[in-house]
Design goal:
About 5% of the residues lie in helices and about 50% in strands. With about 130 residues, the protein is mostly beta strands. Strands 2, 4, 5, 6, 9, 10 and 11 form a seven-stranded mixed β-sheet that branches. A four-stranded antiparallel β-sheet has the order 1-3-8-7, with no helix packed on it.
């Protein structure tokens, strides 16, 4: 399974971005049945959980810093997961990674995820 994250860029504080994560490869059906997560890693910091969604799309979770600003969603017919990011702040600057979990559920721990995308850079200027 290959995960391709896209949609990053340079924006100003208060702007919005939507990240996409498209799955492809021999076992893409797997990701339609798996939970999907978004993580981010800022320069000099460890990778951290951002948001996640189960395979049905009826259960989501968010890290406290992004609650109320970010929304995770998915379109299983398109094998794609999205992260809508509103009211962006400079502290949201990071490389954002999408990942497919090992089960149909989502988790906050990176160890719960079996497949990772290459990351897309989001830079928020003040």
């Amino acid at each position: 399974v290959q995960l391709q994250a896209s949609g990053g860029g340079l924006v100003q504080a208060g702007d919005s971005l939507r990240l996409s994560c498209a799955a492809s490869g021999r076992y893409i059906r797997t990701t339609s049945n798996n939970g999907m997560g978004w993580f981010r890693q800022a320069p000099g910091k460890e990778r951290e959980f951002v948001a996640a969604i189960n395979w049905r799309g009826d259960s989501t979770g968010y890290a406290d810093p992004v609650k109320g600003r970010f929304t995770v969603s998915r379109d299983n017919a398109k094998n794609t997961v999205y992260l809508q990011m509103n009211s962006l702040k400079p502290e949201d600057t990071a490389v954002y990674y999408c990942a497919a979990s090992r089960t149909s559920a989502w988790g906050r721990n990176s160890g719960a995820y079996a497949y990772w995308g290459q990351g897309t850079l989001v830079t928020v200027s003040s």
